[in-house]
Amino acid sequence: xxxAHLSSRITNITGGGSDGWDVFHRARAMIARGLPVTELTIxxxxxxxxxxxxxxxxxxxxxxxxxxxxxxxxxxxxxxVAARVARQTGVPTTEANVLVTPGAxxxxxxxxxxxxxxxxxxxxxxxxxxxxxxxxxxxxxVPCPVPTRAADNFQPRAADLAPFAEGARSLLINTPxxxxxxxxxxxxxxxxxxxxxxxxxxxxxxxxxxSQVWQGDHLSPRALPGMAERTLVxxxxxxxxxxxxxxxxxxxxxxxxxxxxxxLSTHTTYGVPGFIQDASVFAFDQGAALEAAIAAPFRxxxxxxxxxxxxxxxxxxxxxxxxxxxxxDIRATGMSGxxxxxxxxxxxxxxxxxxxxxxxxxxxxxxxxxxxxxDRFAAALETLCxxxxxxx
Length: 392
Description:
Aspartate Aminotransferase, domain 1, 5-stranded mixed β-sheet, 15% strand, 2 domains, Aspartate Aminotransferase, domain 2, alpha/beta
């Protein structure tokens, strides 16, 4: 019997190659065999969700908020998200501008479904979070990376973007940036906004790390002139409140776009559990102090990393201005990021992500997640530097 064919959309999500997670999967296989591995791969907090948030989640579930919740999100959470966004960006925002989604990843997929027809070109900046091109392919669009340069600390430049913009439908950016830790500055964002206005692009702005800024200021491009009506912003409880497994995110956008996105949610995810939304409202009610406390370990480890890296000359840091990662330039070793990461894992049981997992602009680099306790993090980074020195 002939097997039915799957769609090219689903079979081509990774583009026919690796999905960039080979080192991560290899490290997890080692752990499953009982080997000790220091994992510096994914953006998972080493301190879990605050017990008070879990208590609020439990109380909401016990109180009966376990049935279908409103598909756009509860009014309480949509209002809380809108108030936070308006306060932080200065852009008037109401619940009509908010759709609650099962995490920011679902929001990214929905945003590309909303802005791109099948076959449309969707731009994104390289280096990029590993799921971006697959998300675009899954939405039926054609992913097109736009390179940034290590020499510019991966700040995007309008002159580099302009040649790709003609005929495209959308541009996906991420600031503070994963994997580089770069916070896009005002000139970069002004240039991006100008390209979007000139070429009638939708801007899809992934801002899940907006609570983790170590240097400079986070500016949402939605706040720039003429951009509120052509920008969709992704946000999430995952990074700001250490609620990664709760899968609670949102899209901010023009009311008309949100109305259509609600229709999409009705036919796909059908919303987010009400007790998780109630817990998210409780988390927001704890104010900026809780977000600062959750971000504090990454600021501290960022400073610790720069101290360690400053004592040697082989591994160069792209100074992280935000997020929970540090990007390391290991090209002085003559090794690719992938070869270096695999050898480091095999010889020292330290798992980091090769830069090539995030695009060709990051080739010869490593992304190191600052997600283990300070002592283990420092020891792993010192071992990494010694490993690089031995191969330079």
